[in-house]
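Re: your question about NrdH-redoxin

S., sorry for the slow reply, the queue was backed up all week. Below is exactly what I fed in.
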Amino acid sequence: MSKIIIYTQDDCPPCNFIKNYLTEHHINFIEKNIKYPSYRNEMLEYDAFSTPFILLNEEPMYHVDLEKINRIFDIQL
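Result:
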């Protein structure tokens, strides 16, 4: 089973987009809002400086790659 973690922040349109996209396709994810210092520090350990930052099966995704997400979760459009 694939695992997805999304580092987000408040008032982030791309963050909202990917969360809504995954929800619409019934994909479970873990959200970590970087307003909490521990989550911000986790994200920085990957040299990620913007949100949304995604860990897909523990592999960093520094931008939203819908093709890859669709392929891994078998989302048919």
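The helical segments are 13-24, 37-44, 66-72. The chain has three helices and four strands.

Happy to talk it through on Thursday.
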